[in-house]
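Could you help me review a protein record that somebody else here produced? Do not assume that whoever made the record got everything right. The record follows directly below this note.
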Amino acid sequence: MEINETFSQYSDWLYTTTVAIYVVALLFSLFEQAFGAKGRLAAERSRQKVLVGAGGPDTELEDGDVPAKPEPRPEAGRPERIGRMGAALLVLGAILQLTAIVLRGLAVHRAPWGNMYEYGMAVTFIAVVAWLIVIKKFPVRHLTGFFLTPVVILMFINGTMLYTVAAPVVPALQSYWLSIHVSAAIIGSGVFLVPGVASVLYLFRTAHDKDAARFAKFGPKLPAAEVLDRIAYRATIVAFPIFTFGVLCGAVWAEAAWGRFWGWDPKETVAFIAWVVYAAYLHSRATSGWRGTRAAVINVVGFAVTIFNLFFVNLVTAGLHSYAGVN
């Protein structure tokens, strides 16, 4: 089918706009992270005073005593307001990025992940959506800057080094397995970005807890290590079965296309290594009770292998997956 150049151009413009919006959201979040810690601590102290004044668990009221009137909730300071603006920009960027993906699909009349540029665009979108869900469930909005940093870097590399003009896919990719196998790999890889960042921050947090003097300026601004560990574990539980399904579908597609389920292609091999690392992470937690630093290190290794497979394998090595639009 003929490529719709108009939709393709709009998709490229929206992608560039999304990167710019994410950069602004990143700066807003870093501002909140740097200057909002005092505001969060003040709000926590005020909350504790309200509980005490209202006859909470930290105080005992004698007969005839009247509980003190709760103090009004303190207004959010400037860093917190800027942090909320950053979160709103993150939502706007996700909407624009989704629109760019849809327009790319309409332009090429197929699933919009037939080359590495489209794949990277979809992976980063899933990662942003996953993070938006996390900050909805956990009070970690101020950590958005740490999460957006790798996202912006990946999107910049994707839009420059990996950019591919809209075009039909090669015959090897003209299969319904493109939608099934690649979409599962996209969702799994995108969600894996969240536990990767959370585990890195966990290591910094525990380092501060062990050596507060050395990490005095960084550790206190992070949430408790248990919170970061919980985020990493729950996100990995969500991503791992989806990623596993994608690997299995890839093997079935390989048998249908090339006559074998496994051929030790570089991308297949590194994907399998990533699967083993994440399986080891979940297995060690379930059976050996591994938590804390050891589990976080395994998760970081899995994240590193995933990024390595996403970019380095396609840029440097040659294999059966080299048709993904990268020279």
Remarks:
- Residues 127 and 193 are 6 Å apart (CA to CA).
- The chain has a mean pLDDT of 81.
